[in-house]
Write a structure and sequence with these properties.
Length: about 325
């Protein structure tokens, strides 16, 4: 029996699970499915909203009136936090990795429009961001406010609950559709969505293997991060779970030139999915993972998705991240 913590109802749930009919035609005997978590909202769309339902609930339980979080300049998580915080009457302070651009676009534009306070840390100083967040918390306390810190991507033992709950939702989807997928595929950047799904798979006895395509770091990093978060989850919530049950599968080789930088092939894949089925991916997360999934399927029995007949791709959002990179698309 799972003991659930406090949770806010912030996402539009359940999200649809639908076949990618046209695009799947290129694969003999394989159907791709999309779990549409890009439809968890509009301005707050994407996977981060599921995690924030639990993280912000914890902040409120602790009597906090301010949220501090961090990420890249085009962070989907920071954008979602900025908007949800304002909707809930909380102040939001974002710590963004990089330099302030001359003209804000994409997620950053929404951050500014929502009225979030924004501080920038250059890449060379990013390792100090937890210390900087602690300084901001101290400043807020001196001013009579209480700030709650949410880590990058809401990836910690609290944020895990978002995709533990999503796993229960997927189980209901599979039962309703009489679907038994061999794989659940997702992009992994901070590891929280992958961790929640990997843990949820065991808690709800899903047969599909959770397979994550790395868009940063390597398989060793994600294995260590997930084990760390699940260990803290067990301790914090007094959960009885054997860590040996976790089947952590991370596919490397599709990061490209670096985090947030995609190859021409990824942009072409994004175009193909949009033109075939009207589904829009992004070049930072979902585009890379989807491109990796397609490549592995084309390898057949030699690929990481060997034996696939039904594959569920969890669309974690990121649409606003397309616009700052629109110059990378090529049209005839």
């Amino acid at each position: 029996m799972i003991k659930w913590p406090s949770r806010l109802q912030l996402a539009h749930l359940p999200t649809p699970l639908t076949p990618l009919t046209k695009f799947s035609e290129q694969f003999e005997g394989v159907t791709l499915w999309i779990k549409h978590d890009e439809q968890t909202g509009t301005e707050v769309s994407g996977n981060k909203v599921r995690k924030l339902e639990f993280c912000i609930a914890e902040a409120q339980d602790q009597g906090c009136d301010t949220l501090i979080t961090c990420g890249g300049v085009q962070s989907n998580h920071c954008r979602a936090t900025a908007i949800l915080g304002k909707r809930l009457g909380m102040q939001v302070h974002l710590i963004l990795r990089g330099e302030r651009p001359e003209v804000p676009g994409g997620n950053l534009l929404l951050d500014y429009l929502s009225g979030a306070r924004i501080s920038y840390l250059p890449q060379r100083d990013w390792r100090t961001h937890p210390d900087f967040a602690a300084e901001l918390q101290a400043q807020d306390a001196a001013a009579g406010h209480k700030a709650f810190f949410i880590p990058t991507g809401a990836t910690d033992e609290i944020g895990l609950w978002g995709y533990i709950a999503a796993s229960a939702e997927l189980k209901a989807d599979f039962e309703r559709l009489q679907l038994q997928p061999e794989y659940i595929v997702v992009a992994t950047g901070s590891g929280g969505t992958q961790g929640g799904l990997t843990l949820g798979r065991e808690l709800f006895n899903l047969s599909a293997q959770v397979t994550a395509f790395a868009v940063s770091d390597d398989a060793s990093y994600f294995r260590n991060k997930i084990i760390e978060d699940v260990t803290l989850w067990k301790q914090r919530y007094d959960q009885d779970f054997d860590l040996e049950r976790l089947r952590i599968q991370t596919i490397e080789g599709y990061i490209g030139p670096g985090y947030g930088v995609a190859t021409a092939e990824v942009f072409e894949t994004i175009k193909q999915v949009a033109s075939s089925d009207g589904v829009f991916l992004d070049p930072v997360y979902t585009g890379k993972a989807f491109h990796g999934m397609v490549n592995e399927l084309r390898k057949g029995s030699a690929g990481a998705l060997s034996g696939a007949r039904n594959v569920v791709f969890v669309h974690t959002g990121g649409l606003f991240g397309v616009f700052p990179q629109q110059h990378n698309f090529r049209f005839d």
